[in-house]
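Build the 3D complex.
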Amino acid sequence: MGRYVIRRLLQMIPVFFGATLLIFLMVNVMGDPIQGLCGQRQCDPATAARLRQEFGLDKPVWQQYLTYMGNVFTGDFGTAFNGQPVTELMASAFPVTIRLTLVAIFFEIVIGITFGVITGLRRGRPVDTSVLLLTLIVISVPTFVTGLLLQLLLGVEWGVIKPAVSPEAPLDELIVPGLVLASVSLAYVTRLTRTSIAENARSDYVRTAKAKGLPCHRVITRHLLRNSLIPVVTFIGTDIGALMGGAIVTERIFNIHGVGYQLYQGIVRQSTQTVVGFVTVLVLVFLVANLLVDLLYAVLDPRIRYA
Amino acid sequence: MPEPQYDDRGAIAPTGAGGATDLALSEAETLERPPPGSPLGTGPSGKPRSLWSDAWHDLRRDPVFIVSALVILFLVIISIWPSLIASGNPLQCDLAKAQEGSQPGHPFGFNGQGCDVYTRTVYGARTSVTVGVCATLGVALLGSVLGSLAGFFGGGWDATLSRLTDVFFGIPVVLGGLVLLSVVTSDTVWPVIGFMVLLGWPQLSRIARGSVITAKQNDYVQAARALGASHTRLLLRHIAPNAVAPVIVVATIALGTYISLEATLSYLGVGLKPPTVSWGIDISSASPYIRNAPHMLLWPAGALAVTVLAFIMLGDSVRDALDPKLR
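Done.
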């Protein structure tokens, strides 16, 4: 187990540097950060040259990347366009997005797995067909349309929720945005659980469990679910990174000041340090989540042994 | 010692962000080649049917397939000849009629600039279909060539490619789109398509790699190899026809999600730009007025949803037909 963890950690290193380098290059194509600092006005050439030297932008890209990474590992993510340290922006943005992601994952687990179990055990029945159709519809309506419609109906027409989330983003205001963020993954979790349950429901060990007279709920929770949830856990784990990155759209609709909002501001204002910093952390979250999922396999499925 | 197959598992949840390109792969998990001896059924003449004619036999009887294929046929026809059902010009607008509702001759009403929503919705199909088809073709070609080479030859090239796909999977798609496309000033669809190919190929290359690895272990491939067939012949004549089914299924489902991604990027303001007529642009420009004039948003959004739904359902039914294990 220990050796396996170490090998996975070592494998993460090239992926981490590759992804951050890719983003670094993309952002470099994005535009001149000095022009972003001057805002709408044209920069004074002398000032621009001095700033360029001060930020090390006159050096080649690979050297800039190395310097930046060196700084990151000492906890210095640079400064945003308004002179605020990027770490300060992160401290205010990440808690909000993490809360939003947690709400989304909660919905995925509770609603997705419940629907998946119900439909998987009743394949071909009307419940199954209607839930499947519903998931297809949820998958095909883009998230921003779902979000705008829910905001209009619940927030404006019926007044059940506040149309925009306040800056502190308390948990109860994040319920509907979390549901919107989760919607597409929720449909996938339902379908994945359904397929997995339906496959395992025919297996020998379930028949044995039934034959020895276990009550139905015990067969489902102890025998069927434990084996069927392995692919679902994988999906949810890899989804964590995708949800945090995808929060851009949801956060824009509901005006939530989280990671997506800061990233959007960073891109609009061409603040390379903000963009690269946030993306670096997101990539790291994604990689760690994947690693945890692989380790969870062993807990869920004792047949797997790590060399 | 067995190891968890994280490489293949990872394929179910690609870079997607907000779901746009969280391609409908969760189900691809179950997508495997049918076992060689699976009952393929026999035709009326008693002749054994191939996998493809068997799939076609099933598809012709599948109502989901028929409905989605008809919808897609209709979309393709109106994106080639939009004037067949819309006589107006999508760029001809009358500000005096801005935000007005349905009127005789203008069933969907007018948008914020006073353009006819019906005409714009019809003309928007062309953009969406072009983006979807071109992006899918690009992704499928690049992904399946790189993936099958990696699966066939293995070794260093395979390891490099696997790490490279890991790198691409680490970047959320919408995020990459915001960063890369925010510099583009061109008002054509090509930068958006290029971006989708750039970030989309790793997903298909994983699928292609996996199915080539499965196919190359078959006896007939070993036999052909023993008879001295060249690498090219092995790949093209023996492996490709038996490894292409999962790629086709995933690509069909992906087509729908690329259309949805284009709309999402246009909504964020980095996708297509006016004067291109696109559902994403129309939804985006209608969203501030959703309270007073919801029709401006609902029609293009409905058209978008139906289109994406049609492609996803088509991919779904093709998968069911090609994968006898699920029956």
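Residues 1-38 of chain B form one domain.
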